[in-house]
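Please check this protein record:
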Amino acid sequence: MIVILFGVSGAGKTTLGRPLAQNLGWKFYEADDFHSPANIDKMQNGVPLSEQDRWPWLHSLRGLIEQSLTAKENAVLACSALRKAYRQYLCVNEQVQFVYLRGSYELIASQIRQRHGHFMDPALLKSQFETLEEPETTDGMLTVDLGRSPQELVDEIRRKLRLNCE
């Protein structure tokens, strides 16, 4: 199984993804690691990515998902996947589960102010919210509301996806 934690930058995808994967004994992948140097340079300089910038990145992520599933390796992937089309592209089969990390602009902006060492310019949060297409309740994705401790959120994700330690 591949669990994709998605949402805007600063929602806590990595903060939740690392301990979730560790608790389950699964691999963890950070989608940001698959961006081209040109994409990273743009984001560091406060320039939003274009659709043309994003599709090669998404193609790399789909390849990673396919490889993991073929190898029967469970993994957690932290990935913005802001648009419905991106999520549809990454949904290789029913073994891919999405978890939307939902929070208000104010909450996530506060979280961004507290983090260090991330390459993305915090000024891009507005464009992230503008790009975000929230999942519909009929999309079959788990939505987790932020604002609680990382451990509480990880526990909720495990409980709702019925994930047990291996």
Observations:
- Residues 51-70 form the longest helix (20 residues).
- The first strand starts at residue 2 and ends at 6.
- The helical segments are 13-24, 37-44, 51-70, 84-90, 105-114, 125-131, 150-161.
- The CA atoms of residues 23 and 69 lie 20 Å apart.
